[in-house]
Amino acid sequence: MRLKIIHRYIISSFLGPFVLTFCIVVFVLLMQFLWLYIDELAGKGLSFGVISELLIYTAASMVPLALPLSVLFSSIMTLGNLGESYELIAMKSAGISLQRILRPLIVVSVMIGITAFFFSNNVLPYANLKMKSLLYDIRQKKPDMKISEGIFYGGINNYSIRIGRKDYATNTLYNLQIYNHSDQNGNTQVTIADSGYMHMSDDKKFLVLDLYHGMNYEEIEENRKSYQPGNKEYPFRRNSFDEEIVQIDMSIFELNRTDENLFSQSYQMMNLKQLSKTADSIYTEGTEKKNQLAKTSIELTRESNVYSRRSQGDSLKTLKNFPANFAVFFAGLPARERVNAIQNAQEHARSLLENTSVSKTDIDTTMEKQRRYMIEWQKKFSLSFACIMFFFIGAPLGALIRKGGLGVPMVISVLFFVVYYVISMTGEKFAREGVYAPWVGMWISSFIILPIGIMLFYQATHDSAALMSENYLNFIRKISDKIKLSRQN
To answer: Would you state the pLDDT for residue 112?
Structure first.
C-alpha cells in the first residue's frame, strides 16, 4: 500500500512538468515556424479560421520532436526535486531501491514512446498533408489589395487603378483613373471620375466601384485594318456619366484549396505500410534503370568495335576478324579510312559517355528518393525510442545532481537534446547522400547517446558521488578557503 502511494506521488510529480514542458516546446517551435513564414502569411487577409487550422496542423507535426525533449526535462526535474528535498534519500532509507522508485515512470515513458510511434504512423502523415497543402495554398494567394494615393495599383488582373486623394473620414475617393486591359490591346479603355466609393460585394467576389461625374474613353479596334499604314487616326468613343458602377472580379484574391492528392505521394505524408510499398517500387525502378544502363553500354561498346573496311565485297568486319597485330593492321589502312575509324571511335566514345552520365544522374536521383522514404520509415521508430532513451538519461541524471526547479534541469536538457539533434541531423544527411545506410543514419544518435544513459543509470543505482553537485560545490569552497587563507598570511 505504501509503495502504491509513492508510485502515485512520483507519477503526479512527473506528469506536471511533462505537460508544461511539452506545451512550452510546441509553443517555441510554433513561434519559430511563424517567424520563418511570416512574410508569406502577412498581408493576405487570412481569416482566423484559416490561421488556426494552419497552426493546429503545424503543432501536430511538431509533436514527435517535442516529446523526447519533454520526457528528458521532466524526468530530470522530477528526480532532481525529489533529491533536493531529500525525499529520494528517505525512500532509499525505507528500503526502496531506485529501480523500484523509477518503475512507474519507466512504464509511463514506455507508454509515451508507444503513443509517439502510433502518432507518427497514423496522425502525423495526415497533419503533414493538411499543413503542407494549406501552406501551399496560402503561398499562392495574392496579398490583400492596398491602393495608395497617387500611385497606380496593378495588383488586379487586367486593371490599373489610380486614386488622387482619399478622405479617410468619409471613405470618399477623388480623381480616380481606371485602365481596363482586359482586351490586351494597351490603354484603349480608360475611365476617369471626379469621386467615388470602393467596397466589396455581399458575396465578397467582386470589387464594386461607385463612380460619380466622369468620362469613359474607348478606342475602336474593329476597323483599324481599313486605314492606310501612315494614318494614326482611329475611331474613338467618349461618353460622360453622372453615376456609374464598375464591378471587378476578385476571385484571384480568394484562398483556393488545392487537391490534397497532389501532395499525398510525399514521404512525409505516408505511414509505414505506404512507405515500404513506395520504397520497394522505387528500388525496383532504380534496379531496372541500372540494368538498362548496362545493356545500353554493352550495345554501344559492340558498335564501337565494328569498323568499316572494304574487302572482297564485305562492308563490315567485327573485332573477331581483327589480325593479331592491330597496330600494323591499322597502319596499313588508307589515310581516309584511318581518319574515318578515328572519328567513328570518338563519336561512339562521346555517345557512351553522355549516355552513362545522364543515366547515372537519373539513377542517383531515383536511389536518393528511395533513401528518403526509408529514412522516414526508420524515423518513426527512432523518435519513439528516443522518448524511452531520454528517460533513462534524465531520471538517473536528476537523481545524481539533486537539483530541481527550472534552471539546472533546463540547461542540461537543452544541452543533451542539442547534441542528440545535431548527431541525428548529421546522420540523416549522410543517409540521404548514401554515405550510410538509412537505418544507420537514423539510429546513430541513439547508438551514441544510449551508452551515456546506461552509465548514468548504473551510477545512480549504485549511489555514485561522481555527479553530485554538492561534491563540486564543496571542492570549490575548499579552494576558495585556501586562497583566502593564503592571502591573509
So the answer is: 92
Of the listed ranges 92-96, 167-171, 182-186, 304-308, the one predicted with least confidence? 304-308
Whole-angstrom distance, CA of residue 308 vs CA of residue 342: 11
Q: What is the pTM of this model?
A: 0.67
Contacts of 149 (CB under 8 A, 6+ apart): 163, 164, 165, 166
Cell numbers for 15, please give them: 506528469
Lookup: cell for 311 = 574487302
Give the whole-angstrom CA distance, residue 383 versus residue 369: 21
Rounded CA-CA distance 294/279 in Å is 23
Q: Which helix (H) or strand (E) segment is 263 a member of? A: none
Say how far apart CA 74 and CA 393 lie, in whole Å.
Answer: 11
Task: Compute the mean pLDDT over every residue in the chain, rounded to the nearest whole number.
Answer: 78
Largest Cα–Cα distance in the chain? 116
DSSP letters, 332-370, are TS-HHHHHHHHHHHHHHHHHHHHHHHHHHHHHHHHHHHH
Question: Are residues 485 and 467 in contact, defined by beta-carbon separation less than 8 angstroms?
Answer: no
Give the start-to-end residue ranges of the domains of the chain: 2-141+377-488, 159-253, 268-375
Q: Is the pLDDT higher at 335 or at 10?
A: 10
Amino acid identity of 13? Answer: S
Is residue 64's pLDDT more than 50?
Answer: yes
Taking residue 366's Cβ as centre, other Cβ atoms within 10 Å add up to 18
Give tens-digit pLDDT for 212-237: 888 888 877 655 555 555 555 666 77
What pLDDT is stored for residue 259 in this prediction?
Answer: 62
Say how far apart CA 226 and CA 448 lie, in whole Å. 84
Nearest partner of 333 among 311, 355, 354, 353, judged by Cα: 311
